[in-house]
Q: What sequence folds into this?
């Protein structure tokens, strides 16, 4: 590449980054005008939406030469289902009582676990998914809402959420060595509100797909997902990749990348109605630690995230292999510590643009439904599944294995689509 071409490319990237920042500044001005125009009541409304739960300190990040620290945010997607809203959109509604926050309730597990790492110089970010079926030595912790103690034992990492977000944060720290500075819990109803607030999220699937377990049914092509359809897409594990939780994490990356691009677009950030709806949806949808428990704190975090361009925000899934004692669950692969170490040392991840999806796992028996499987043989890079927000614009790869059952017959999600003409599609 010539010096002249390289210079022009850098100029274009700088121009795009400045445009994104200008839109963010405009959005902040819009919010400020709305708050001033609506009086202190609007500010108190947004601030009052926020719910908090305790987070105990795990230590501090290592500062860079300029004295700046990285930020590690743990995002937890909750299947608590303790509210009427959550029950109405797919919860099992079996939870009769809940603790002081939606973040913790009887029998609650976490469907989504993502570590969002923002570099100390705010030049790059990494979003690492941890499969919910990862087995580990769970640390001892105390549920800060109930006082109940969890003793050390071996279990799935998502089980720790039964004792609160702080317990899950401690488990992530023990598994990865990454210090969790903040957490954000979002429940089922919250996903619906936020996808609606941005006008829907555009995603593509490379084939017809029907997952009767999550109820997602989409024809091949691109769809704008809103409300329950967005939730069905995020919950689907049998429809994508190898039909396991690994496939689900990659599909979630596709969705979240599209959502971030939508939120950063000029049509969203300069529209006062959209901005206010997004602010109201976001603040009412989450439970956060006290460090993020105010509008100024959340605004500050959003601004720091906005400093990172999409081309430098990378999604990656923790490398895994099947648990030797139970192939229905996974354990970190031998190269997972390499990935953890890069995040701890504040090293940026990158990968050439490529298609979205996971490599195929061994084909299951024709007479059975595919069991959850793990990543293919790990490599030294530990970043084989990394995609940036900019490059993650392809189609989610529908599973080619018989991962679902219709009328007692195991079949692929595409075959299930054809076999269920009476079931309406989730989105046009």
A:
């Amino acid at each position: 590449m010539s010096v002249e071409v390289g210079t022009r490319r850098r100029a274009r990237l700088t121009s795009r980054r400045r445009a994104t920042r200008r839109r963010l500044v405009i959005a902040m001005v819009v919010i400020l005008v709305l708050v001033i125009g609506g009086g202190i009541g609007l500010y108190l409304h947004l601030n009052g939406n926020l719910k908090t739960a305790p987070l105990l300190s795990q230590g501090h990040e290592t500062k860079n030469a300029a004295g700046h620290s990285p930020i590690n945010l743990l995002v937890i997607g909750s299947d608590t289902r303790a509210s009427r809203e959550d029950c109405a959109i797919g919860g099992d509604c079996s939870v009769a009582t809940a603790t002081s926050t939606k973040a913790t309730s009887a029998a609650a597990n976490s469907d989504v676990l993502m570590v969002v790492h923002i570099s100390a110089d705010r030049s790059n970010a990494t979003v690492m998914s941890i499969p919910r079926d990862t087995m580990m030595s769970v640390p001892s912790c105390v549920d800060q809402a109930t006082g109940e103690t969890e003793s050390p034992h071996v279990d799935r990492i998502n089980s720790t959420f039964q004792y609160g977000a702080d317990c899950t944060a401690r488990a992530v720290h023990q598994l990865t060595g990454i210090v969790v500075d903040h957490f954000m819990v979002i429940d089922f109803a919250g996903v619906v509100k936020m996808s609606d607030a941005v006008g829907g999220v555009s995603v593509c699937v490379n084939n017809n797909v029907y997952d009767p377990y999550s109820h997602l049914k989409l024809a091949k092509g691109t769809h704008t997902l809103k409300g329950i359809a967005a939730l069905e897409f995020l919950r689907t594990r049998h429809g994508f990749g190898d039909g396991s939780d690994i496939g689900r994490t990659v599909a979630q990356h596709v969705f979240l990348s599209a959502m971030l691009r939508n939120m950063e677009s000029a049509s969203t950030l300069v529209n006062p109605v959209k901005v206010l709806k997004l602010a109201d949806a976001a603040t009412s949808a989450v439970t956060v630690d006290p460090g993020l428990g105010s509008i100024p704190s959340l605004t500050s975090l959003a601004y720091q995230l906005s400093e990172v361009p999409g081309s430098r925000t990378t999604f990656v899934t923790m490398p895994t292999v099947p648990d030797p004692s139970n192939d229905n669950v996974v354990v970190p692969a031998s190269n997972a510590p390499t990935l953890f170490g890069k995040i701890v040392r504040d090293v940026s991840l990158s990968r050439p643009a490529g298609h979205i999806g996971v490599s195929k796992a061994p084909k299951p028996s024709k007479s059975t439904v595919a069991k959850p499987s793990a990543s293919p043989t790990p490599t030294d890079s530990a970043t084989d599944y990394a995609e940036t927000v900019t490059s993650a614009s392809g189609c989610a790869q529908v599973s080619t294995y018989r991962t679902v059952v219709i009328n007692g017959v195991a079949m692929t999600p595409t075959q299930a689509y054809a076999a269920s003409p009476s079931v309406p599609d989730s989105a046009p």
